[in-house]
Amino acid sequence: MSTHDPDHGGSDVALQEGDLPARFDNPGLPEHAHRLTDTDPKAARRAERQVAFLFVLSMIGTLVVLVGYFSVKFHDNLGFTEYLNRLELSNKVLGIGLAVALLGIGVGAVHWAKTLMPDEERIDYRHLQRGTDEERAEAVEKLATGAEESGFARRPLIRNTLIGAMALFPLPGLVFFRDTGPLPGDDLSTTFWKAGDRLMLDPEGGPIKASDMVLGAVAHVMPEGIEESEHPLNEKAKAAVLLIRLEEDKLAAESLPGAYGGIVAYSKICTHMGCPVALYEQQTHHLLCPCHQSTFDLTQNCKVIFGPAKRPLPQLAITVDDEGYLVAKEPFHEAVGPSFWERG
Questions:
Q1: pTM of the predicted model, to two decimals?
Q2: What InterPro entries does this protein map onto (predicted)?
Q3: Element (H, E) at 284
């Protein structure tokens, strides 16, 4: 059985037969075992130098990454074998450098905590209510004392080398992110289309005449000569266009200057996430993106009427040449595809 003992903080006291309490004294915390660095100043200084060495090692690893990144060159006239050799060397230098940089910071921090920071056992009772002003002031004092005991303020060698290691370590990440591709600018703002380019069927190739586009017909087209561009795959990803013919009186007034006899051409790249907008519903004259169901209305100059896309599909102004083939009247007036920061 048990009873509530108000004389002992309201705790429950277990009773044996005869109502004799069976209590156990609180054994408390075990006796603290001091480390060598707690009792020997020479050992503490030696540990401090070891921690600083590890942080300096991390700094060296970061510098190795940066030097290796810029010193191993790749250029177009490399042979396949030479390219693979340089790629392998680059991967090894970057991998080893990053490993040393991370290991130096991690092991140094652990060694610092294990040998120099306080390791005395303490018991802190949690409470859910806001402490009194005296308790809060005491907590601030304890934090300041802990910071002092950690040695961060009075061990400038460790502090400065840690700051140096942590300041250098993010640099490879900045370099790597910068090299993930060209900054958005002209590469994303312009396409291969220019005035006079014939509309070539994709993927079969060959020009297309206005007379070939019957009412309701849909064709996927690319600009003439795109296969001979320096980066054809990149250019195709931006230049894909959908060609559609519908009744001329169904077209919006703003789309008529870029149309030819009811034939309109719009970018095939969804303005939400860049998926191909290739589903055409002939009865409603809607274009549907299959990825996230953004819907564009051809009769409203491809205005977004449903889904997450925020901008209409850009229109490519078209006309015909002397032979009756459909050609671009002018390039796109705006960037195609999803938004980006530098978009005009």
A1: 0.52
A2: QcrA_N, Rieske_2Fe-2S, Rieske_2Fe-2S_sf, Rieske_Fe-S_prot
A3: none
